[in-house]
Amino acid sequence: MVDVLWFIEGSEDEQTDPDDAVKVLEGVAHLVTKLSSEQRSELIGLLGTMAEAQSG
Hints:
Elements: H1 2-10, H2 18-33, H3 37-55
């Protein structure tokens, strides 16, 4: 999921249709709102770990 979002965020309009990109981002946002507080915390922790690995 993170790789897809990263790709969409970094894509030029010629690579990804902007309307499709918005639909994907809105869909992911909707799914995240359905997570429990514990699941969201776990996701945030995972994203932090991934960010540290990317920068290191």
